[in-house]
Amino acid sequence: MDNKPGVESFDGDWLALREPFDAMARNQDIARALMEHLDQKGRPRFLDLGAGTGSLTRWLGHFVGRAHAWVLADADAELMSRAFDTLMDSADSTGWRATWPQRKVLLLHPPEGAWRIEGVLTNLADAPDGLPLENVDAVTCSALCDLVSEAWLLRLAAELARRRLPFYAALNVAGHERFMPPCPGDALVARGFARDQRRVKGFGGVALGAAAPDAIARIFTGHGYRVLRGASPWIIPRQEGHMAHELAMGHAEAALRHEKRGAKQIWAWADARTSHYHAGVLSARVAHQDVLCLPG
Ligand SMILES: C[S@@+](CC[C@H](N)C(=O)[O-])C[C@H]1O[C@@H](n2cnc3c(N)ncnc32)[C@H](O)[C@@H]1O
């Protein structure tokens, strides 16, 4: 918790490392269904909750195909600043101009129409209170809903339903992680990791973890929404061992918080996974689901 008390913090380098895997994993059919729903909006406006370094904007923005706007909401000032730097860098490498019409508004200029991007530094724990929902056409998030509590999601869903706003939630963990090759300690680490996913993460109750996709679907269906779900797994081959290794170390660290009596075995597992990485044989697969909720 470096940034704000009670806010789960994420390392910008980790988010950068996972960005290409996130991009490959996100379900394109689900993204296209959101864009079809927004077809009638001349210049759609998106609010991205827990935007981090802006990874979802860089990916989903390409599906819009015309001028549109983003508000990136996050509690972490460092990640927010990195989001704008990275958005400018990626525009630059694509040959798009970037301009600042106002101090806090970035415009990217691809040929099909400008992307307007601004940031809001906010603790989302009290959402939907404080969210600029009157000015948006869709609420999005990526890798966020497994951190939130059911109570938080119920509040958000009720407010979005009142405003008939669509909700797009990408990369919700779905509860199946597998590292290869098989290794002693796999089950223990998986159990500790699963327990860690239900830790309280600053959203007013135990985190949904792998229950997130079902909870989103159930809650929004209850408000009369049509819910679409699509698989979005991370598939990390041996050739991308660095990502698989970072992931394994993250799993070990999470498991150690809960499996105190198994600590020695978890350390041995981490050592074995490091050897697998150095030998070029470590791979991983992590199940996720993208969920789109459309007002009826
Ligand atoms: C797993 S990261 C996902 C980042 C980004 N959406 C992506 O897909 O790369 C979760 C994000 O939620 C943000 N976050 C966590 N708790 C928060 C809170 N209480 N208020 C605002 N942002 C929060 C973190 O700062 C982080 O950027």
Q: Could you explain the architecture of this structure?
A:
- It is a single chain.
- The chain is built from 9 helices and 10 strands.
- The protein has 296 residues and is α/β, with parallel strands linked by helices.
- Strands 1, 2, 3, 4, 5, 6, 7, 8, 9 and 10 form a 10-stranded mixed sheet that branches.
- A hairpin with a 5-residue loop joins strand 4 (105-109) and strand 5.
- Helix 5 runs parallel beside helix 7, helix 6 packs across helix 8 and helix 8 (241-258) packs antiparallel against helix 9 (263-278).
- The model has no long low-confidence stretch (mean pLDDT 96).
- The structure holds S-adenosylmethionine.
- S-adenosylmethionine (SAM) binds at residues 7-8, 10, 15, 22, 50-52, 55-56, 74-76, 79, 123-125, 142-144, 147, 202.
